[in-house]
Specification:
It holds the Pfam family HTH_18. InterPro entries: Class_I_gatase-like, DJ-1/PfpI, Homeodomain-like_sf, HTH_AraC, HTH_AraC-typ_CS, INH-QAR. This protein is α/β, with parallel strands linked by helices. It is built from 14 helices and 13 strands. Helix 4 links the parallel strand 10 and strand 11.
Length: 322
């Protein structure tokens, strides 16, 4: 990756930060740099020309510095390991490109670099779900939406983790040239032209409290999810008032008791769908999620896909039996 990849007039510049993720930088290279006579030209640049460490692959030899952003139509920042504030030269170059009207794009944790440059302030944005809370804490002016595969805010676009960067790159082609060309490139990459469901099916639902909490109460609740548990029942079990219980749950988990119970039931349902062959009716019963219809509605609303689709995606027996 030493210079431009020949192509059409739209210049895509990929900024390789230190410890760039190999998969993330490979996505725009494949999508925009694999055309023979296509509509895009791709350049990889770095803060300074030379070798750039890559997480998950050999170092890149990069010939271009940040000055090539001046000719960019689209700038893409792939994810990088342990995202921190990039150097002042990087943030200034990103901010300068945006000020010139350049389209700014991030894949995975590349959103941290855009946020550091102030490009996500007042906007909705996403990143890998594992880093979403960190992004929201570090940049409170950004509305972080961890469930989405990608978010298009016009000039600024962000994607979730790894493969959702491919979804976003195909979306850029679709936006620039229509669905036919995007679908053609998707077929060449053996990828879905458009995916639904977001990152929600991949996000862990943490249901155990911090060690400072009341583990006996939470463990008891987790063992009795099949029962129609109520706040009053939990309060009696803990030997405290209803108000004290609600306050304790907020302290331990950051959630009201009934929301914590719902997350625990959904987490259990996901485990059963991933590892067993119980019917949807049986899973709903084991998790205390009511009728099968109610279970399907709740599961899709919070996880993003129906139970059957989730099982087909994450259950090894179902996957191997396809």
């Amino acid at each position: 990756m030493t210079g431009r990849v020949s192509g059409g007039g739209h210049h895509v510049v990929v900024v390789a930060l230190e410890n760039v993720l190999a998969l993330d930088i490979g996505i725009p290279w494949q999508v925009f740099g694999s055309w023979r006579d296509g509509p895009y030209t791709l350049t990889v640049c770095a803060e300074r020309p030379g070798p750039v460490p890559v997480h998950g692959g050999p170092a890149l030899s990069v010939a271009q510095g940040l000055d090539c952003l001046a000719s960019a139509d689209t700038v893409i920042v792939p994810g990088y390991l342990e995202p921190d504030v990039p150097g002042a030269e990087v943030t200034a170059a990103l901010a300068g490109a945006a000020a010139r009207g350049t389209r700014m794009v991030s894949i995975c944790t590349g959103a941290f670099a855009l946020a550091a440059a102030g490009l996500l302030d007042g906007r909705r944005a996403t990143t890998h779900w594992l880093y979403a809370q960190a992004l929201a804490r570090r940049y409170p002016r950004v509305t972080v939406v961890p469930e989405d595969l990608y978010i298009d805010e016009g000039q600024v676009l962000t994607s979730g983790g790894v493969s959702s960067g491919l979804d976003l790159c195909l979306h850029l082609i679709r936006r620039d040239h229509g669905p036919h060309l995007a679908n053609q490139q998707a077929r060449l990459l053996v990828a879905a032209p458009h995916r639904t469901g977001g990152q929600a099916p991949f996000i862990d639902l943490p249901v155990r409290p911090e060690p400072s909490g009341s583990p006996a109460l939470y463990d008891w609740a987790l063992r009795n999810l099949h029962q129609p548990l109520t706040v009053d029942q939990l309060a009696r079990r803990a030997g405290v008032s209803r108000r004290t219980l609600i306050r304790r749950f907020h302290t331990d988990t950051g959630l009201p008791p009934m929301r914590w119970l719902l997350d625990a039931r959904l987490a259990r349902a996901r485990e059963l769908l991933e590892s067993g062959d119980l019917t949807v009716e049986a899973v709903a019963r084991h998790c205390g999620l009511g009728t099968p219809a109610n279970f399907r509605t709740l599961f899709k609303a919070h996880v993003g896909v129906p139970p059957r689709t989730y099982r087909e995606t994450f259950n090894s027996a179902a996957v191997n039996g396809r």
